[in-house]
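Protocol step 4 of 5: obtain the predicted structure for the target chain.
Materials: sequence only (see below). No template structures provided, no constraints applied. The aim of this step is simply to have a reference model before the mutagenesis design in step 5. Sequence pasted as it appears in the construct record:
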Amino acid sequence: MRRSRMLSLATIAVASAVVLTGCTSAVQKAESPDGNSPTKGGILHIVQAADVQPATLFAQNNPNFSLTRTVFNSLIDYNHKDLKPEPELATSWKMSDDGKALTFQLRKGVTFHDGSAFTAADVIASLKAVQRPGVASQTKSVATAISDMQAPNDHEVVITFSQAMSNTMDLFLMTPIIKAAAIDDALAGKSFMGTGPFSVKQYSPGQGFTLERYDDYWKKGAPYLDGVQITVVRDSQSMLSQLKSGQADLAMDLAPLDAASLKDTSGYELELSDANDSVQYIASNVTVPLLSDKRVRQAISYAIDRKRILEQVDGGIGSVASLPWAESSPAYDKSLVDHFARDLAKSKQLLEEADAVGKSVNIYYDAGFQPNTGIAQIAQFDLTQVGLKPNLIPLQASDFLDKLRTGGFDGMFLTGHGFGQLNPATLVKGAFPFNADANASSFDNAEYKQLANELWLSNGVPSKATLDKMNSFLLDQQFVSDLVLSTHTFAISSKVKGLSETMLDYLDLDSTYIQK
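Step 4 output (structure tokens):
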């Protein structure tokens, strides 16, 4: 079972030449500690709070964690210890010295679930889909920098970029390869044609998926399971009840306190993803007069009791944060973790300097996710303590997301973000709370755009000096105030063995089995 750990990130960009062959077989990965052989067969029953969102298959989106890697594969995976790229549908690759040309050699003998061959044309079509204006992806900036794609043969792709970028490989980690002719149907939720270990037998929107084993999966011996049943159960307590009653084998992202309750419960285990990319934050629409002053935003950050949120809302799962980075990121700086440790005196001083004492501020949150209510109530109490008048506005998930996408909050808003675990450029150029080109805070700043481009337009990992400048800028501006760095949780029956996740937190069920 994975636990949070420090990852040594030597580089996330591909070196001038990378040649990797072979993968650890599913059989090797699934060997249990007691030496027992994995059990074949059985259906894994998964419950999750939200239905999958097919339109966002090319982006990291929590509801899709159970589907993306079970039905599809990407060209590469990332090693969890050092974040170096490893083979998946690509067996090897080579980057030009200038970082502008990347050649992939593709795995032979791979088929889609309808029996048709996987070829270079499917790779090109999937990447072209990411380039579409209406298709969401946190690595869109990389995809749109592709100036040319060629397929010298069915098992080779040559991709040319207009510029070198530090996060080039993140695009190929994130992009699932979908059969070229079936991409539009996948985005519309009509069919899902991938090369992964399971094929979609049935999709009932709003209810869930039925998946069945793909017998011709390219990894020998995988998967062990006969199938997977994914069921939407809106309430965390109901998910927990189904897990404890045996109706479910795995519950995705229980409310933190529900998840924490399983830590010492016999017959159940709580797996914590080692990506550590689930960050709770409160942010400001900087076009609101009160919040246009960075001193007010800093005061808010100093006022909020992060430790109380960690313990009372998150059940101690995670750690306090002042910046968005997980320990795997080259931008992570341990000395800055407590930069915004609670300091009521400093908060009050900043509010007085900004003539903000006694001013009202709206705080919006998605009330459908229980932890948000707890965080909102703590924020309300803390901001009242320093002289603001916070007004909590709970919203339904759809209404909250609409405002988040359009920058429509007339005040503050709280939710969670990811992408602190990969190359920093992917967060500041793609993750919506931080995207320097367009973000939910309406924070439009020339210096920030320049810094983001410095991180991004680098042939290799950005320099420490550049990362330090970015950290100083984010701490100073506080249009996003990160509160707690947590992680996605997978609550499982102890009968479930060999569960794994990618560095995007997608379930990897290649080696999963149910012990009889």
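Step 4 remarks: The CA atoms of residues 317 and 486 lie 6 Å apart. The two ends are 19 Å apart (CA to CA).
Proceed to step 5.
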